[in-house]
Fold each of these.
Amino acid sequence: MKPKDKTIKVTDPAILVEDICFNWPNGSQVLRSCSLQVPKGEFWMLLGTNGSGKSTLLRLLAKLLSPQSGTIHFEGQIGFVFQNPDHQLVMPTVGADVAFGLVEEKLSQLQIRNRVEDALSAVNLLELQRRPIYALSGGQKQRIAIAGAIARNCDILLLDEPTALLDPDSQLDLVSQVQSLVKKRGITAMWVTHRLNELDYSDGAFLLDKGQVVDQGSPELLKQRLIRDSS
């Protein structure tokens, strides 16, 4: 697929990626002249086949990796949610884990408690504040990971295939939860997925192929294209 000349121009984007290139140490190229813009306060999805560069791009946005060339600009605090929540939940209980990321902010105990309760309320899990992490379902663990980002007042939420390990009901519950957070809190979200039904919850989507954005815009039109291309 060749990139279409459809780059969305955003006056004041929350995320701005311009001509990013990234190679692994063995020389394998993952991203090449990759560019995109995400509007503030919107929920956008990133699609593409395995190896198209989706997860690598998300890790570049989160500064877990650095590009060889190109620029990345974003405004505000970044929150990152991994595909497997067990890779980022480190404390024994729900409340302690959400509070863990606040240690460096030198907050009072009351401020920490308020932040934790607000974040757990935002994902509808306040009643599980004292629940052991091991007793949670996969969907609940992902919501706790999101709560941890909210507690740190994230402005941009990056989610790397967060429904990959969840059952169908939990998948839809999580994506609708993020959609609600975007609308109610004004955060910006970028969600990596390969599930076409999740597009229905987004404001827009990007399609990656061989390390470049080849299409972008309306979730409905991208869904139609992907269905047509697969038939």
Note: Strands lie at 13-23, 29-39, 43-47, 69-74, 78-81, 156-160, 188-192, 204-209, 212-217.
Amino acid sequence: MSRERRRTWLVTGASRGLGRAVTEVVLEAGDTVVATARDPRSLADLAERFGDRVVPLPLDVTDRQAAFATVREAAGRTGGIDVLLNNAGYGLSGGVEEVSEQQARDQMEVNFFGALWMTQAVLPVMRGQGGGHVLQMSSIAGIATYPNIGLYHASKWALEGMSETLAREVAGFGIRVTLVEPGEFRTEWSAGSMVRATPMPEYDEVLAKRRHGMSGAYAHLQPGDPRKAGEALLKLVDAEDPPLRLLLGNNAADLAPRVYRERLAEWERWDALARTTDHER
């Protein structure tokens, strides 16, 4: 699609991190952004800079009724929604045994169900206008796994499965779906945005390195540039044939193929046993 055609984006979690950077890049490119956050006052400076091309709205993505109401208001005020960026989310640090029930449920409520509710809310708008693009902010953690963030992985793997299915269901309506899979970007993700489980001493040795990595010690030292991520997403939505998955960052681009090669090799090693479980013909 030509850049002469100005789009309207709806971005969740637009107040900080990747969401904030993408919002600024998109606005600078001349598009309109409905920017949502739990506290829209954090977006006031964007309204001062970009005027009526930014529409700040309050939103808690875990509230399904609020998600539908926000999408209706956004479409009513702007005339439609061309791109939904489901960016709202956060990290949860803790071993699988360490994470509390509430922490686990909250992680899924925001990272998975929040994206699901927003996706359900925007699809009638996009079907009615004959197309659109849903960008799901996944992660390299939706492909590979690391100790100490198992529930975060679970939320992103759920998002990946839902979104790959969605892509097949909505293609006939002219709606594109892309899973954005960034590696490490220079944000607050491992610092102020991170929720941490209470450590169990049994895991002190096993998880020591990963706990330190999720302590905020390396926040704003990561290799990824959030603004460059925004520029990449502009190129993505301009593409005539956008991908289902887009890796962002060298570490993600290196790791994902290695993970899949390892999986293919393991399936091949165990292929003979896999083929022993069907009924005899």
Note: Residues 101-129 form the longest helix (29 residues).
Amino acid sequence: MIAEFLSYGFVQRGLAAGSLVAASCALLGVFLVLKRLSLIGDGMSHVCLTGVAVALLTSANPVYMSVPVVVLSSLGIMKITQKFKIYGDAAIGIVSAAGLSVGLLITALAGGFNTDLLGYLFGSILTVSRDEALLCGILLAAVLAGLFFFYRDLTSACFDEPFARTRGVPVRAVNTALVVVTSVAVVLAFKVVGIFLISALLIIPPVSALLISRTFKQVLWLSAAFGVGSVWAGVYLSFLFNIPSGATIILVNLLFLAGAYIYSKTGGLHAR
């Protein structure tokens, strides 16, 4: 059964793209969770609806149309936070509401909900194209390069921003880069789990890893492992039982979270 499952080209592309984007989201999510910006995925996913709706209205590629829309919205969140001196979650809520409202209006103009739009709302990992899989690979390469070259700046800005500034770390630039790259990850992830479930890929794997890890680097790699593992298990289970892949991936993530919680509470950490 597994050999048959892996023999299909569309499954191979879906697993490759899903693994790449899940690893990217999980790694980025670690910093977002620790900086209390984890809901940015939820906010940006709502903005994605605007990009997808415009793409369907103009017959453009939804991924290419959504990237500039979501990136500009993420920069808007940073600007609102800085200019009006409000917390990040409030800025996320403002931009999220605006994006969702505009997206719904454009959807109505485009003729309402159709099969294509529903696929983006709830995920359609097995329809990922070769070009989209390549973009997911470029995204993960960029995330890994950022971790390799700017690891100290990222961790300093994540744990203690005032101290990081005294050390000369460009905190604002680091935060902006993190939010922009996360925006791209959100756009690429809507084919994997759907617009409404993207935030789970950014939040659940890092939280699971934080529960059972002893070092920060271990958190990063465990988070990525949980994200990739959930994609493989979720896609296989959805293929086996003919159920939605996006929702199944998130449910597998929740099982990982439950297992990590139980492990942390039953002495697993101390036993090591």
Note: Residues 77 and 83 are 10 Å apart (CA to CA).
